[in-house]
């Protein structure tokens, strides 16, 4: 446990928190944009370690959460087809569409398979030449190289029975959309570490400069998040708006150029609809026309499906940092991970699901936002 | 699912023209593609996301990050079924243990062994 203790050392955490307290003179709102960071913050009660006036809000950092309902319904329609083997990351299986989830479809006889890696679909397609293998290619930039490789290999090997249902989203345009909103409260960002391990952080610099907002690319471990918060507050207090790298032990400004090269050969940037937020221009990847033979949206005749989100759900405002789960009248009652009403509850990495998982809906006496557990090892 | 998991490359090989590896994550062994970190050598540690190495990490970082991910219950992607192309009709429903498979783990499977490496 040597290494774990080192990064969850309570004394180091206390020193960082003391330093935040020392430099902070005004209230600040900081948003993290990585589901792993959200999970870590809520699990370890990091938001409650911070001095009063430093508020952490939880951005659209969970790719499962922001996958639009109409895309989920499209996936389900394809998965129900008799000649299809529908492959997905495990996280998507329990996400409800308008009628049931992928588990339901599997229980009703649909061939739905959880895969570890997109390229598992190659083996499945080779072993089942009479079936159409469709992969639900969701994710942020971290997942794009893996999904790109599936399309690339399928084309190279002439595997006509492999296609991708692509619902890929990109972090920087989402940050810009949040900052442009008239209701915006966010003054600084903790950037997503593993997204930037692939993409580097160069593309965040124009956003930081345009909106004069600090973006500190951070890891997801408790001390990373505290350190990233301190670096953000130092910038805010000195009126700087720059991109900084808290996670230099993992990533640099360039990212993984080899991975980026294949991603850009396979995908092109286009508009994407984000669940809870709506359409954000240039915020996602689509397969290039050279890969049309492997584009499930082009291959399957699935008409645009009309969907309707819950009228009560406030996940759109949560994803933009305007509200928190405690502001929702049905959090933990009508809306639970077993019966999610919207984006932030459908996956464990969503803010509402994380708050629920760590019991923040239970402490009614102190208000639903208060953690019931002691602050973990980081205290 | 936006986090990558660090593991140790214990074997590198070519599969259908792709540079692949067997990577040990704590007590679990899975295949990963090395195409994006092509200079990786056996014995080095890599960050792996959905079966793809995306960067190298040093040993200390790898151990610590793995433990934190385990503590956060963020290792479930490693437990996804193994696709075995030799079996046309099914997937291995659950990762197998080293004991079930004998001392030598299958080249194409998840192996659960004892913790540590």
Secondary structure topology:
The complex is a heterodimer of chains A (379) and B (117).
Chain A: H1 2-7, H2 10-23, E1 28-32, H3 35-44, H4 46-49, E2 54-58, H5 63-66, H6 69-79, E3 84-88, H7 102-107, E4 111-114, H8 120-127, E5 132-139, H9 144-156, E6 162-169, H10 171-180, E7 188-192, H11 193-199, H12 205-211, E8 215-218, H13 222-237, E9 243-245, H14 257-266, E10 267-274, E11 278-287, H15 296-299, H16 315-319, H17 351-357
Parallel strand pairs in A: 1-2, 1-7, 3-4, 3-5, 5-6, 7-8, 8-9
Antiparallel strand pairs in A: 6-11, 10-11
Chain B: E1 5-15, E2 18-25, E3 28-33, E4 45-49, E5 52-57, H1 59-71, E6 96-97, E7 111-112
Parallel strand pairs in B: 6-7
Antiparallel strand pairs in B: 1-2, 1-4, 2-3, 3-7, 4-5
Please, could you describe this protein's structure?
The complex is a heterodimer of chains A (379) and B (117). Helix content of chain A is 37%, strand content 17%. Chain A has 379 residues and is α/β, with parallel strands linked by helices. In chain A, strands 4-3-5-6-11-10 form a 6-stranded mixed beta sheet, sandwiched between helices. A 5-stranded parallel beta sheet of chain A has the order 2-1-7-8-9. In chain A, β10 and β11 (278-287) form a beta hairpin. Chain B has 1 helix and 7 strands; from the N terminus they run βββββαββ. Chain B has a single domain, classed as SH3 type barrels (Roll). In chain B, strands 5-4-1-2-3-7-6 form a 7-stranded mixed beta sheet. The two termini of chain B are 25 Å apart. With 117 residues, chain B is mainly beta. Chain B is 11% helix and 34% strand. The interface between A and B is large, with 58 and 45 residues.
């Amino acid at each position: 446990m040597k290494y774990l203790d080192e990064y969850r050392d309570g004394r180091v955490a206390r020193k960082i928190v003391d330093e935040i307290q020392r430099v902070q003179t005004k209230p600040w709102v900081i948003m993290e944009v990585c589901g792993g960071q959200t999970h870590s913050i809520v699990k370890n009660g990091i938001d409650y370690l911070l001095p009063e006036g430093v508020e952490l809000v939880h951005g659209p950092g969970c790719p499962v959460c922001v996958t639009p309902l109409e895309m989920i319904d499209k996936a389900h329609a394809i998965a129900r087809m008799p000649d299809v083997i529908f492959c997905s990351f495990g996280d998507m299986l329990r996400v409800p569409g308008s009628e049931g989830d992928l588990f339901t479809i599997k229980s009703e006889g649909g061939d739905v398979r959880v895969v570890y890696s997109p390229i598992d679909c190659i083996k499945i397609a080779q072993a089942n030449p009479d079936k159409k293998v469709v992969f639900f290619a969701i994710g942020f930039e971290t997942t794009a190289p893996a999904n790109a490789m599936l399309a690339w290999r399928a084309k190279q090997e002439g595997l006509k029975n492999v296609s991708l249902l692509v619902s890929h989203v990109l972090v920087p345009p989402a940050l810009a959309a949040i900052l442009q909103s008239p209701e915006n409260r966010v003054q600084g960002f903790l950037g997503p570490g593993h997204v930037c391990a692939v993409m580097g952080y160069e593309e965040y610099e124009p956003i930081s400069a345009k909106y004069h907002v600090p973006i500190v690319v951070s890891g997801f471990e408790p001390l990373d998040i505290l350190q990233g918060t301190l670096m953000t507050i130092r910038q805010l207090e000195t009126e700087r708006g720059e991109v900084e790298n808290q996670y230099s032990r993992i990533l640099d400004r360039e990212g993984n150029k080899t991975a980026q090269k294949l991603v850009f050969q396979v995908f092109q940037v286009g508009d994407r609809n984000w669940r809870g937020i709506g359409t954000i221009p240039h915020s996602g990847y689509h397969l290039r026309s050279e890969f049309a033979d492997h584009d499930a949206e082009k291959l399957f005749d699935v008409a645009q499906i009309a969907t309707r989100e819950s009228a009560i759900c406030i996940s759109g405002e949560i994803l933009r940092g305007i509200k928190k789960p405690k502001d929702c009248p049905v959090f933990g009652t009508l809306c639970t991970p077993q019966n999610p009403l919207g984006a932030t509850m459908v996956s464990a990495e969503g803010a509402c699901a994380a708050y629920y998982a760590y019991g923040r809906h239970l402490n009614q006496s102190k208000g639903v936002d208060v953690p019931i557990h002691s602050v973990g090892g980081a205290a | 699912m936006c986090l990558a998991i660090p593991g140790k490359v214990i074997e590198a090989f070519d599969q259908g023209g792709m540079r692949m590896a067997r990577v040990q994550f704590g007590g679990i062994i899975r295949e990963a593609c090395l195409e994006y970190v092509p200079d990786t050598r056996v014995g080095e540690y890599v960050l792996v996301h959905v079966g793809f190495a995306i960067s190298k990490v040093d040993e200390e970082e790898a151990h610590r990050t793995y433990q934190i991910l385990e503590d956060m219950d963020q290792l479930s992607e490693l437990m996804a079924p193994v696709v075995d192309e030799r079996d046309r009709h099914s997937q291995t429903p659950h990762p197998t243990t080293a004991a079930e498979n004998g001392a030598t783990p299958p080249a194409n499977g998840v192996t659960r062994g004892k913790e540590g490496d």
